[in-house]
Amino acid sequence: MNKLKLVGSVGFFLISILTFAQEDKKWQGKFEQLGQALPTPNEYRSGSGAPGPMYWQQQADYVIQAELNDETQHLTGSETITYHNNSPDVLKYLWLQLDQNILADDSNTPKTTTASIKDSVTTKDIAGDLGLYDYKGGYKLGAVKDAAGKPLKYIVNATMMRIDLPQPLKSGEKYSFSIDWSYNINDRMTHGQRSGYEYFPEDKNYVYTIAHWFPRMCVYDDYEGWQNKQFLGRGEFTLVFGNYKVKLTVPADHIIASTGMLQNPKEVLTPAQNTRFESAKTSYDKLVIIATQQEAEAREKTKSKEKKTWEFHAENVRDFAFATSRKFIWDAQAVKIGDKSPLAMSFYPKEGNPLWEKESTKAVKNTITTYSKYTIDYPYPVAISVHAAAIGMEYPMICFNFGRPNKDGTYSDQLKWGMIGVIVHEVGHNFFPMIINNDERQWTWMDEGVNSFVQYRTQVENYPDMPQRRGPAESIVPFMKGDKSIQRPLMTNSEQVIAFGSEQYHKCAVGLNILRETIMGPELFDQAFKEYSTRWAFKHPKPADFFRTMEDASAVDLDWFWRGWFYTTDNTDVSIDQVKWFQMRKENTNLENKGKTVKKGDLTAGASGAKSYDNFSNGPEPFSVIKTDDRLYREFTNRVDDQAIINKLDNKNVYEVTLSNKGGLVMPVIIEWTYKDGSKEIERIPVEIWRTNEQKVTKVFVKEKEVVNMVLDPLQETADTNKEDNVFPKVEKASKVDEFKKRTN
């Protein structure tokens, strides 16, 4: 008998576990806090998302001299780096990035790049795929010495270089060393890349856009020590703030655009150009052409053999880039931001006109002004847009952007908007990641996606006629409902992402726009976003710092949103499964009927048999409301006013709505009600409606008027991927879908 009892108990226990497991499959913890998915707060990074009381970061200062050979497209340089160890750790070695080695013969990038052969492949494509171009890339390192001139031991591992220190570098100490190097500048037409030159056969001149051109310090931080992930091409750059003094020697007839402020304008500019340059510093209401097209065309022909050295200084920047050419036209305009007057500037060959003179500097001005409103006041002395073919790439104070008119100077609206869009985006990168300095090698969305969101705000506010791509929720729907096999969560290292633009740029930007417009509201979102920007300006934020700050500064629990939008590839697809229409019985309502009780929350007691719930054609079902049985009051001695409650339901229309979450992503529920008299109402229900059942919910609504149809997400705010199940009555769904397609277009 005891054995039988034991077997019965075990059997009951197994059945209970099985039942729980089945229920658990439905529950996916979408509203659970991120908890252990985020790093544990500590003295360096607080639980609020702010830097902790013991937060620290390293500093690297550079003194660089370099010369560009316009005959051989060769760059030679030497640098002295002073590295400040502000960490609590003792460092035995230092890591530097050698990004030009991505083009070296033994680079891992072509070894790990996949390709296939197809018929009728172009010469350009197959030469690039198979490495058939005659070009020798990568750094040629010269002397690597300490401050006393003694050689330092070092080892190069692909795109990383480790320098072993003669003595450990203690906390609070600094160390200076020097490196000499050179490399062949690549042709961007054949080798792509973010840096290189463009050759113009017509006048036999070059435009050089030079970046990641010197050995640069890796980041060492509290989060993971050295960030020395190899550079494979997609994951961009994680860099240390510091101060730069740079001298660049180029042909005497070149014009240079650069990170930093020009220190010797009288030595490198003509008297007329210098006068215009000074005038531009106070020219808030008009553009000043510092180097004219006429001057540029004259320089193209003469091709000076002399040299000049331009000197630039930059403070508290994470990188340094420049562009140089005898073809450059140069314009500028002062912009008033807070107590500063930075110069918005553009550099472009004649091939960029008339479009560039008309639109580029204006876009730079609009960008730094609007971004300053949403983040921090633009702190640097210049913001520069440089015209370069088929590229959009950013560096502190300077960026390289596409947008070339036809040879006769004509251009389409598509080209104009594309050029303005890329300028806004790349200039915007001054804020993310050049100032709010995230780890680009690991978390692409933190700069590309966040920046794309503020780009969208800038374009909406300054270019109301501009077609918008990355921002409106509806724009991400084709991707979100597409092939899941190529989708990755936003929290994925950039080298493993397949749909790079759609995901890391577009999906993140749309997600933040949904947060602002639908979930948090503009006021709360903007304050929290500005708080994040202020907290982490000139520091190194991580994803958790962003997530925590947005919640800390808004009192909005967003863990469900981060979990769904950033950690999964779920999509929004909410359907209206059925709608039941009820009206309260009048003749059968009996307050004296004390013997009859109804189940709490059940408004369907007394309703007649089964019906179809695809439309409202059957009319309302009746339900009874009766006096509350005294036993239901338990220990309470007071009573509700039964008649008053019944009076409130008199002649009301009661709708029991059942919704399903088919896409997996929980979102607020937005319903547009259309009433029989033609009026409409939009009702917004917070996302927490899904908190106890993530797949299906039923909610009752009481309406004064009779409803004739309903639409979920009527303004297309939540990126719902299937509009056909968003309408009720279902028999009208085709026409209803057409209606709000027409309305939103």
Structural commentary:
With about 750 residues, the chain is of the alpha+beta class. It folds into 3 domains: about 60-440, Immunoglobulin-like (Sandwich), CATH 2.60.40; about 445-570, Neutral Protease, domain 2 (Orthogonal Bundle), CATH 1.10.390.10; about 575-745, no CATH class. It has 17 helices and 31 strands. The strands form 7 sheets. The chain has a 7-stranded mixed sheet. Helix 8 packs across helix 9 and helix 9 (about 415-430) packs across helix 10. The radius of gyration is 32 Å and the shape is elongated.
Secondary-structure map with pairings?
Blueprint lengths: L1 H25 L32 E11 L4 E11 L6 E7 L10 H5 L10 H8 L9 E7 L6 E5 L2 E10 L4 E11 L3 H4 L4 E5 L4 E6 L5 E2 L2 E2 L3 E2 L15 E10 L3 E4 L2 E2 L2 H4 L2 H10 L7 E4 L1 H10 L4 E11 L4 E4 L3 E6 L8 E6 L6 H20 L7 E6 L4 E4 L2 E4 L11 H16 L19 H15 L14 H4 L19 H21 L1 H15 L6 H10 L6 H9 L6 E11 L36 E3 L18 H8 L3 E9 L7 E7 L4 E6 L10 E8 L3 E6 L14 E2 L4 H12 L1
Parallel strand pairs: 1-13, 20-21, 21-23, 24-25
Antiparallel strand pairs: 1-2, 2-7, 3-6, 3-10, 4-7, 5-6, 8-9, 9-18, 11-12, 13-17, 14-18, 15-17, 16-19, 19-20, 22-23, 24-26, 26-29, 27-28, 27-30, 30-31
Helix pairs in contact: 8-9, 8-10, 9-10, 10-12, 12-13, 13-14
